[in-house]
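Example 9 (inverse folding). The structure is encoded as follows.
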């Protein structure tokens, strides 16, 4: 489900606050969101947006460069929803407002992600889910999701570990 421009601005503000200089620049995030409107999953409690997760289908060439530690995250080309066929998802950001951390809320974001992927992906071939680990907490969440480290932070131009997992069908996400 696509979010409104107002919600996008709230999500971007959260990302900028949480990740500072490591956040995807606002203009880049907005381009990605316009190309793949379902790529931002907000988490609300009542009327308050308390967290969000962003994911994007990326090309095989961008994946290879990112996995080799040679491509900056902000230089990914998220050009259209047609990249769903690539079978490669990149989780760019997952954040919660500080007062909602360590309450299992990240698990809710992951559950929403898996539900959405299960509905939109065609499963003609396995799906690769990838991410960069920004913090120890983030690495722990990604590993709990099932991703494993492929590249250490020191081996990447992003200065963050690269993780991935392969999923064969929607039931693997349950």
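The amino acid assigned to each position is listed next.
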């Amino acid at each position: 489900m696509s979010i409104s421009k107002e919600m996008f601005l709230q999500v971007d503000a959260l990302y900028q606050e949480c990740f500072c200089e490591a956040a995807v620049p606002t203009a880049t995030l907005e381009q990605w969101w316009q190309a793949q409107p379902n790529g931002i999953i907000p988490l609300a409690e009542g009327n308050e947006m308390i967290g969000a997760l962003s994911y994007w289908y990326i090309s095989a060439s961008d994946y290879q460069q990112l996995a080799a530690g040679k491509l900056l995250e902000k230089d990914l080309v998220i050009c259209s929803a047609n990249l769903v066929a690539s079978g490669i998802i990149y989780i760019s950001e997952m954040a919660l407002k500080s007062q909602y951390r360590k309450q299992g809320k990240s698990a809710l974001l992951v559950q929403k992600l898996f539900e959405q992927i299960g509905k939109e992906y065609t499963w003609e071939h396995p799906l690769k889910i990838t991410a960069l680990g920004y913090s120890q907490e983030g690495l722990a969440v990604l590993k709990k999701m099932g991703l494993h480290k492929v590249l250490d932070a020191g081996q990447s131009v992003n200065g963050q570990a690269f993780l991935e997992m392969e999923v064969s069908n929607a039931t693997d996400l349950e």
